[in-house]
Every structure is written in structure tokens, then in C-alpha cells.
């Protein structure tokens, strides 16, 4: 509407100017000098008016676009003016300004929405330019890499040199595995890089994922499959041996007692009987051995209940009171007031007792042995239980292997205690971690989801 009014205003002024020009030409042709001068003055005034009108309009439009370019949303043109053409122009410019601001607000809202999703994404995300500057580093990336803030790839040199080199080259690559060690554990990463062009600028989009949990679960599943096959095959082999040994022992004992065959040396029969007894005894021992490993694959689903942590710690002290070295060890327990954990009591006691027994064995013979049991709630609501001892610690070369089934550093032991503990924690939706400073302390940390999630 405003454009039509402007159009008619300009056309009207041009027509008036043409009419006056024709009048001036007529006066000049008929030698009416006075009229020619008057019409000339009128033409000059009309041209000046037209130029002024166009300049005012152009200045308002130019000012409007300059405000848009400078992201100035405060610009507003008055509507209470007598000039109808300018009034319509003001309405149009105000309307366009409102549309632009609404679109801007919508885009800002969407940008905040996507930024919130990006920041809280479980996978780490980085965007890097050719100079190595990091434009984006979400919360997961900062947590996984243990660096905050993340501003340049130089910060990754101390994490993994191979990863730093690949990102320095600034070339895309398919998923690759990297790892680094922090003060608590070894972190295994899956990293992928893809090219990205943003505002005509070449960037590298890097996706980082901590795959410790996936690897651990795959290891557990693999070991469970191995255990199932081994126990099945071993039990199938032992069963007929045990049965046959029992039968032969019974028959031999019958021959000895009845002395039905005097041609057979009784000593020989006794030797046979003793040998069969050994076979039977070892068969039973082997069955017991297999049953101990079978426990790893037959852990029932946890029957979870709310458990008082302080009461749990008291039970642990009582249940471990008969263990060797208990009397010479100082126990320290502490936990947050009224702290509770949502867990299966029998299974959790099994884990804690195993850890305390290991700690007692580690500090055996020490005159100042200390074992600590502590519990607390983290800022995120998780429950943390820790078993600490001041024994000789675990060598760095072995700390990665202690949760592997069958692995043990003890002269006597099956090597399933920590594997079983790890499996139980997985069933609870939690985790078990270990950190050790040789000759100072070893800390096993059990992490449970906060009960408010259940």
C-alpha cells in the first residue's frame, strides 16, 4: 500500500513538472517573458521539492537497512504524521522490522535449543580450524579429555600424541582407537573426524566417545560365553569318570571283604582301591573347581532394596572379624548422614567382603595397617562406596589385569573374586574402579546410580 502511494505521489509531481515545463515553453514561444520567468521559478521549486521528497524517502529506507545491518532492533518510525505517503512508508518499514525481529528471535531460540542439545550430548564434539583453534568443545568432550576449557589442540599433546598429530594434519579419518591414562584409570577412546564448511571456513568435526563401558561389557559377555562352554564340557567329561570310579571302588571293596578270589593279591586290590579313591576325590575337587567359576555365569538379578550404608559397614566388620590379621588392623568407617544405597544386600556384602579380605591380605604383617570404609553422595546424586588400605599397592603393570577372570597374584586363589565383583556392579548399573599409589594406598571405588532415579 505504501509503495503505491509513493508511486502516485512521484507520478503526480512529475506530471505537475511536465505541465509547468509546457507552460514555460508556451510563454517563451509567444514571448511572454514575465510568465516564462514565473514558470521557471515554479519549475525550480518543483524539482527541488521532488528531490527533497525522494531524498527524505531514501534516507529513511537507507537508515532502516543500516539499522538492520547493525542488528539495531530499537528503530521505530512515527505513525502520527500528516504526510500520508510517509505515514504508509513508516508503517511498511515498522512491519518489516517486526518480521525481521521475530525471525531473529526464532533463530536465536533454535540456536539455544541446538546448543543445549550439543552441550548435553553423551558423545564428545569438537570443531577445529586449520590453525588448530577449537571453536566448539561440548561438556562431554571436556570431561572425556579432562581439559577445561578446550581452546587449542596443543592441549591434547599430553593426552595422546597420535591423536594430537592426526588433528594437527587436519584431515578426516574413520573411527580410530586411542587411549590415555589419568590419575584414576585408563581411558579408551573412539575418535572420528569429518570435514565441515561453515561460513566458507574449513573446519574439522571431531566426534569422541569413551568406550570403556562397552569394552568392559563385551569382555564380560565373552568370558561368560567361555565359562559356559568350559563348564559344560568339563562337567560332561567328569560325570562318567566320577560315576565309574565310584562303581569300581564299590566292586573292589566287595572283593576285599568277601575274598572271593584267593588268586588275587589283596595288596594289589587295596592299591587299586586307593587309586580309585584318589580318582574319585580329585573328580569331586574338579567339580568344586568348576562350580566356583560357574558362579560367574549364574549370578541372579539383584533383588534391590534401600540399604543403610553405615549398617552395611558394621556388618562387614563383623563378618570379617575372624579373618587373619583383623585384630592387628585399624578399621576406619565414615559416611554421609542417613546415606542409603539401592542394592541387593547379599551381593553387595559379597563384593565388600571380598575387597576387605584382599585389603587384609595386602597389609598382612604390617604393624600399622589401616583399612577405610567410606560412603558419600556426589553432586550428581550417585552413591560412592570406597574401600581403602595402606598396603604395598598394585603395580602399574598389573592394575589393568586384576579384573580379568583367572588372573591372580596370590599363591592360593581362583582369580574370580574381582571379576565376580565387577559383574555384580554391572548388574546394579554401577561400576568398580581401582586406583593405587605403591607403598601408600589402594582405593577401590564402587559407584551406584542415585536412588532417586529408581
TrEMBL record:
The keyword Translocase does not apply. SUPFAM superfamilies: ATPase domain of HSP90 chaperone/DNA topoisomerase II/histidine kinase, PYP-like sensor domain (PAS domain). GO terms for molecular function: ATP binding. The keyword Transcription regulation does not apply. It comes from the Bacteria. Residues 110-149 form the PAS domain. SMART domains: HATPase_c. Residues 229-452 form the Histidine kinase domain. PROSITE patterns: HIS_KIN, PAS. Keywords: ATP-binding, Kinase, Membrane, Nucleotide-binding, Transferase, Transmembrane, Transmembrane helix, Two-component regulatory system. Its EC number is 2.7.13.3. It catalyses: ATP + protein L-histidine = ADP + protein N-phospho-L-histidine. The chain crosses the membrane at residues 7-29, 35-54. This is histidine kinase. It comes from Zhouia spongiae.
Amino acid at each position: 500500500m505504501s509503495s503505491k502511494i509513493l508511486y502516485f505521489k512521484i507520478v503526480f509531481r512529475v506530471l505537475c513538472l511536465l505541465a509547468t515545463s509546457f507552460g514555460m515553453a508556451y510563454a517563451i514561444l509567444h514571448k511572454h517573458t514575465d510568465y516564462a520567468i514565473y514558470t521557471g521559478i515554479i519549475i525550480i521549486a518543483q524539482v527541488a521539492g521532488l528531490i527533497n521528497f525522494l531524498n527524505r524517502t531514501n534516507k529513511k529506507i537507507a537508515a532502516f537497512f543500516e539499522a538492520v545491518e547493525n542488528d539495531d532492533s530499537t528503530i521505530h518510525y512515527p505513525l502520527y504524521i500528516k504526510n500520508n505517503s510517509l505515514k504508509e512508508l513508516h508503517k511498511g518499514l515498522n512491519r518489516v522490522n517486526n518480521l525481521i525481529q521475530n525471525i531473529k528471535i526464532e533463530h536465536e531460540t533454535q540456536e539455544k535449543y541446538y546448543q543445549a542439545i550439543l552441550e548435553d550430548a553423551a558423545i564428545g564434539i569438537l570443531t577445529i580450524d586449520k590453525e588448530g583453534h577449537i571453536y566448539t568443545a561440548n561438556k562431554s568432550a571436556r570431561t572425556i579429555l579432562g581439559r577445561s576449557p578446550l581452546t587449542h589442540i596443543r592441549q591434547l599433546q599430553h593426552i595422546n600424541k597420535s591423536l594430537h598429530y592426526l588433528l594437527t594434519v587436519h584431515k578426516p579419518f574413520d573411527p580410530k582407537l586411542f587411549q590415555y591414562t589419568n590419575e584414576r584409570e585408563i581411558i579408551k577412546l573412539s575418535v572420528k573426524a569429518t570435514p565441515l564448511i561453515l561460513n566458507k571456513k574449513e573446519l574439522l568435526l571431531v566426534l569422541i566417545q569413551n568406550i570403556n563401558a562397552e569394552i568392559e561389557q563385551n569382555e564380560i559377555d565373552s568370558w561368560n560365553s567361555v565359562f559356559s562352554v568350559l563348564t559344560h564340557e568339563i562337567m560332561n567329561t567328569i560325570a562318567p569318570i566320577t560315576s565309574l570310579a565310584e562303581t569300581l571302588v564299590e566292586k573292589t571293596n566287595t572283593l576285599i571283604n568277601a575274598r572271593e578270589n584267593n588268586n588275587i593279591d589283596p595288596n594289589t586290590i587295596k592299591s587299586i582301591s586307593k587309586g580309585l579313591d584318589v580318582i574319585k576325590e580329585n573328580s569331586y575337587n574338579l567339580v568344586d573347581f568348576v562350580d566356583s567359576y560357574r558362579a560367574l555365569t549364574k549370578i541372579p538379578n539383584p533383588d534391590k532394596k534401600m540399604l543403610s550404608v553405615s549398617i552395611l559397614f558394621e556388618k562387614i566388620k563383623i563378618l570379617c572379624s575372624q579373618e587373619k590379621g583383623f585384630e592387628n588392623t585399624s578399621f576406619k568407617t565414615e559416611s554421609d548422614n542417613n546415606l542409603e544405597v539401592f542394592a541387593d544386600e547379599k551381593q553387595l556384602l559379597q563384593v565388600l567382603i571380598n575387597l576387605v579380605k584382599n585389603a587384609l591380605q595386602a597389609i598382612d604383617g604390617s604393624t600399622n595397617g589401616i583399612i577405610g570404609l567410606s560412603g558419600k553422595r556426589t553432586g550428581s546424586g550417585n552413591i560412592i562406596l570406597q574401600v581403602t588400605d595402606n598396603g604395598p599397592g598394585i603395580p602399574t603393570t598389573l592394575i589393568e589385569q586384576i579384573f580379568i577372570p583367572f588372573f591372580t597374584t596370590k599363591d592360593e586363589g581362583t582369580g574370580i573374586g574381582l571379576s565376580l565383583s565387577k559383574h555384580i556392579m554391572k548388574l546394579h548399573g554401577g561400576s568398580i574402579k581401582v586406583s593405587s599409589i605403591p607403598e601408600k594406598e589402594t582405593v577401590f571405588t564402587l559407584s551406584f546410580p542415585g536412588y532417586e532415579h529408581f
